[in-house]
Amino acid sequence: MLLVLTAKRTTEARFACWSDFDEERTIWTTSQERMKMRRGHRVPLVWQTQIILDNLDLIRAEGTNHVFGKPRSKSGVISENAALNLVKRFDPGITMHGFRSSFRTLARKEAWYDDDVMEIALSHEKDDLIAAYERDDLLEERRPMMTHWADFVTGGEDPVSLRAQLAERAVR
User: Fold this and answer.
1) Of 29, 44, 89, 118, which residue has the fewest beta carbons closer than 10 angstroms?
2) Is residue 124 among the annotated active site residues?
């Protein structure tokens, strides 16, 4: 769900560290070393992703700073196949690239989102000349688009909160 809501690439999410998220979990920063195009990337996080991150924090593997840590594996994180299999549980016919494509299609159909805003959200590179002059990642301009996407994906409903379920069970 974190991948879907953020439109991030699988590798970027698999190697995400808890330190990549700001204190309030409203921004996810991926360093250039973990990016396909070797350029750092920030994603504005909406309330649905904050619930997902809270869930992941509750079940995090001990001894790792990785969000999807698997301490005994060679890489220290879940494998690419494991991540893709989790996606396939939703529907065997879907792919992560399909989610990214759906994100872009929805954003394009909503005519008020600028091409730059959509392309930066997907961390797509422009030609070198244009990229040399870009200094702003349009983070705040992307936030309403990410909210719209998350509302579309979740039907406007809160994702299940493990913390809330545990609190409810404790009351019983």
Assistant:
1) 89
2) yes
Hey, what CATH topology would domain 2-155 get?
A: hpI Integrase; Chain A (1.10.443)
Q: Is 41 a catalytic residue?
A: no
Catalytic residue among 38, 88, 124, 163: 124
Active site residue 113: no
Catalytic residue among 133, 135, 169, 172: 133
Note whether 125 and 37 are within 8 A (CB): yes
What is the 3 state secondary structure string of 45-57? CCHHHHHHHHHHH
| Token reading at 31 | 């360093």
Q: What is the pTM of this model?
A: 0.84
Q: Check 8, 34, 41, 100 and give the catalytic one.
A: 100
Catalytic residue among 97, 108, 126, 163: 97
Place of tokens 């750092």: 40
Render each residue's pLDDT in the chain as its tens digit; 172 residues: 999 999 998 889 999 999 999 999 999 998 878 766 667 789 999 999 999 999 999 998 788 899 999 888 888 899 988 888 887 887 788 787 888 899 999 888 876 788 888 888 888 776 654 555 566 778 899 999 999 999 999 999 999 999 999 988 888 7
CA distances from 169 to 10, 53, 160 (A): 34, 21, 14
SS3 state at 61 = coil
